[in-house]
Amino acid sequence: MKKTLSIFAALFLSLLVIAPSINYSIPLIVNSYHWVYLVVAMGLLGLLVWYLEIHPLLKALSLFLFVSCFFSQAPYLSFNAYVLVVFSIYLLFALRHCDFKIVLNFVEAAFWFQILLAVMQLMGRDKLLNFDRNDHVFLGTMLQYMRFASLLAVIAPFVILKNRLYIIPLSIACAISQSSTFAMSLFAGAMVYLLLTLREKKKLIMAMALVAVGAGIYAAYDWGSFRGAIIPSNGGRLLSWWALLQTWVLNTESSPAGPNLQGPFNLQWFLAGHGMDTFLPLFPIYKHDANPFPQAHNDWLQLLWETGIIGFSLVAGYAVSVWRKVKDPLIRAGMACIAVDMFFAFPMRLTQSMFLIVAFLAMAEQKAGFKYGRQ
Amino acid sequence: MKKLFKVLAVLLLALSVGANGFAATGFRDNDGNPQAVADINIKGCTNSVSEGIGTIDCRTISGTSATYTGDVTFRSNLVSVGRYGASVSSLSSSSTNLSATSIAYAVITKFIGGGGGLDGDGRGSILANGTPGQVLTFIVVGAQSGGTWVITPTTKTGFRNLTFNALGDQATLLYVNDTVGWIVVALESVTVS
Questions:
Q1: Residue of A211, A183, A182, A184 lying closest to A195 (CA atoms)
Q2: For testing contact with chain B, the best of A31, A35, A268, A283 (most B CBs within 10 A)
Q3: Model confidence over B155-171: pLDDT tens digits?
Q4: How far is B95 from chain A (nearest CA, A)?
Q5: Where are the alpha helices (DSSP H) in chain B?
Q6: Percentage, residues of chain A above pLDDT 90
Q7: Closest CA in chain B for residue A71
Q8: In this complex, do A32 and B137 lie within 8 Å of one another by their Cβ atoms?
Q9: Could you give the C-alpha distances from A50 to A8, A45, A86, A358, in angstroms and in order?
């Protein structure tokens, strides 16, 4: 039974990893009878979570997110998103009972498939996705270099758990993809691993210095990517994040456009956010910019914007709780890698990577030996 | 005899309803004498209107060739047979004020007539303010060539109107609040201006 469950779960994850870009949408018309029944059923399953043996913060999160849908600025969008939330919680519960050796094998295979395809694209020999176009690109099935690099950053902890030497092909892939996000994720993971494993001060200092030098060399090599992310004239993220924080708590709909938006403080938005999945349609309105980033390029801040300080605290609290309990340095390094990727990209918004993150958390809980009271 | 003929003439006039929607009728003057009416103008009334000595109730439109010129306001729960397709749109024809708050369902299907007709260029639907959080999806389920359907929300941000002109054209709008109004959430083959 455990093996069958593991194979099904692993197949599901790996098939998603190699899927071309999918826009998640429920194939039901909003407010049709079937859609309403689906949402109602998810609400029931969301409450049933209280009877599962899962982390208490996840139970609270499930209830809070369902209630927050009723206060959302776009309830239909939030109820749609809640369907995925409930599915993710049950997936995490199921994965905790899986044999992760099988899961790691499937993910490793998916990783090599992506690399193989990307190498063919780099050689101009892609006859599958870019037929008859000889562009030398490194995009995998994601067909967009930043998203592909973000996916590799989420896959990285899985393959490194199989074998630490995977840091070599991952570093090569990072250099080819020229993604600053991928680079910072790998460096964060490496630093955490070194801090946790090297006890001798001298060795630790040497290793960290080596990593820092490597980071410096990469930054010089890929300065364009860092520059584009920071400098406003290049569409920098820092300005966008500042606007995000302002529009999270201030009602700026009547504010003049500019870097310092104005408006009255909104307590509901501060506590519970604007509503799940509302960032995309509403942020341009409050930022007074018809063409900002469609995503925040920061999962943590977007979580804050959409679910408020309460939702953010529940998710962050859960992550910290798992971090503190798990002792395996590779798992902790993997969590750091994913957390940094979430800070500069949006893997939680991509179907290819969001369930991988859920799987990693399930693996972390399993390794940490989480035991919840019998219900 | 003369009186009889006058009554018969009035009756015959009343039975023949013209294409321009005029109704022939008679009336009695203050002395009780029956008089024939040659010309009655029914002004734009929504329920009923008192004109002169009586009340003209124009809530019911009958006949197969009634024609009105200019913009006409329909009640938003009126479902009519579209000009095209002999099937039912969940919205009446163009030149319609849509009261979003009275539309129970989020999906509106529409048949678009041919060019130059009621659903022609520039003749569309005005979408009134809705309820914060309300989502509406408009889908074209039939279209004659050359015809278009234009939706212009009263309050909106980021666009002026939406133009639909082909089968399958689809748009989803979200009503944020009375300041921001309607915003576009999703589009498929719809022209936004």
A1: A211
A2: A31
A3: 999 899 999 888 889 99
A4: 26
A5: 2-15
A6: 57
A7: B133
A8: no
A9: 25, 9, 12, 19
Q: CA-CA distance, A207 to A201, in Å (whole number)?
A: 10
b/e per residue B65-90 (b: at least 16 CB within 10 A): eeeeeeebebebeeeeebbbbeeebe
- Best mean pLDDT range from A27-31, B89-93, B141-145: B141-145
Type of residue numbered B166: A
CB contact under 8 A, A77 and B180: no
Q: Determine whether the interchain pair B177/A253 forms a contact, defined as Cβ–Cβ distance below 8 Å.
A: yes
DSSP strand pairing (B96-98 vs B125-127): parallel
Neighboring chain B residues of A32 at a CB cutoff of 8 Å: 107
Average pLDDT over residues A187-192: 92
Residue A122: strand pairing partners? none
Q: What is the per-residue pLDDT across A205-215, written as a single tens digit (0 to 9) for each?
A: 778 787 778 77
Cα A262 to Cα A266: distance, rounded to the nearest angstrom: 12
Which DSSP string corresponds to B70-104? S-----TT---B-SSTTSB-SS--SSEEE-GGG--
Tell me whether strands B162-164 and B191-192 are parallel, antiparallel or unpaired.
antiparallel
Rg (CA), chain B: 21
**What tokens does A3 get?**
């093996």
Residue A107 has pLDDT above 70, yes or no: yes
Asked whether the predicted pLDDT for residue A109 surpasses 70, the reply is: yes
Q: What is the pLDDT of residues A213-256, one digit of tens each?
A: 877 777 777 777 666 666 655 556 788 888 899 999 999 988 88
Beta strands in chain A (DSSP E): none
What is the interface pTM, i.e. ipTM, of the complex?
0.76
Tell me the shortest Cα–Cα distance from A210 to chain B, in angstroms. 48
Distance CA B103, CA B130 (A): 9
Q: How far apart are CA A144 and CA B143, in angstroms?
A: 37
B120 confidence band (pLDDT: 50, 70, 90): low
Residue position matching structure tokens 């979200």: B174
Set of chain A residues whose Cβ sits within 8 Å of the Cβ of B109: none
Written as one letter, the residue type at A360 is: F
Predicted confidence band of residue B103 (pLDDT cuts 50, 70, 90): low
Confidence bin at B84 (pLDDT 50/70/90): very low
φ/ψ region of A56 (left if φ > 0, alpha if ψ in -120 to 50, else beta) reads alpha
Q: Using CA atoms, how far apart are residues B81 and A269, in angstroms rounded to an integer? A: 45
**Gap between the Cα atoms of B134 and B176, Å rounded:** 8
The three-point CA angle A33-A35-A41 to 5° equals 105
User: CB-CB: which of A30, A73, A285 is closest to B157?
Assistant: A285
Q: What element of type H or E holds A5?
A: helix A2-17
Q: Which helix (H) or strand (E) element contains residue A148?
A: helix A145-162
Contact A46, A66 (CB under 8 A): yes
- In order of A16, A321, A365, B131, the CA distances from A97 in angstroms are 20, 19, 10, 45
Higher-confidence position of A9 and B63: A9
What is the C-alpha separation between A148 and A350, in angstroms, rounded? 11
How far apart (Å, rounded) are the C-alpha atoms in residues B99 and A246?
34
Distance CA(A193)–CA(A212), nearest Å, equals 14
